[in-house]
């Protein structure tokens, strides 16, 4: 199978299930941002030496591929793809609660810094927020992706708490914005 098709040379691309869109279409931007997020999470995995974090982030990467495939499918043919499992939101919430048990309550904004791993986790969080805005823009066009929005929203919370937990576990003082 060739990697190039030449179909995109004029700025167009096709969705799974047949629909041609401009590469500037918000749907393409949304799943492209999900792909970018997935790649940055790969960097977090590569920088981490915590097997539990790596395992959880690998699971998250797989779910991001699921989300990307949903967004890359013709919205008029939802039967072509598997539905997203709401249990994945519970997985994130449980992890957020578990990671937050030893963290000091926030009283200030914290700067996305402290170590390379912490900074990469915050970059992932901000890309996640952008992905959320892109999916909201699709939803504004009457295409409903409520469960995906819930997952993406919770994922950005997860990444924020993960950055704080990494700081805590490594005795890195959080830099407070004052």
Which labels suit this protein?
178 residues, mainly alpha, Hypothetical Protein Ta1238, Chain: A
Describe this structure in words.
By secondary structure, this protein is mainly alpha-helical. It has one domain: Cobalamin adenosyltransferase-like (Hypothetical Protein Ta1238, Chain: A), CATH 1.20.1200. The chain has helices spanning 26-47, 51-71, 87-100, 116-139, 146-169; strands spanning 12-14, 20-22. The longest helix is centred in the C-terminal third of the chain and has 24 residues, at 116-139. The radius of gyration is 18 Å and the shape is elongated. The termini are far apart.
Q: Which spans have pLDDT < 50 for at least 5 consecutive residues? A: none
CATH class: Mainly Alpha
Alpha-carbon distance between the two ends: 55 Å
How does the overall form come out from the CA principal axes?
Answer: elongated
Short description:
This protein is mainly alpha-helical and 178 residues long. It is built from 5 helices and 2 strands, in the order E-E-H-H-H-H-H.
Please outline the helices and strands.
Blueprint: E1 12-14, E2 20-22, H1 26-47, H2 51-71, H3 87-100, H4 116-139, H5 146-169
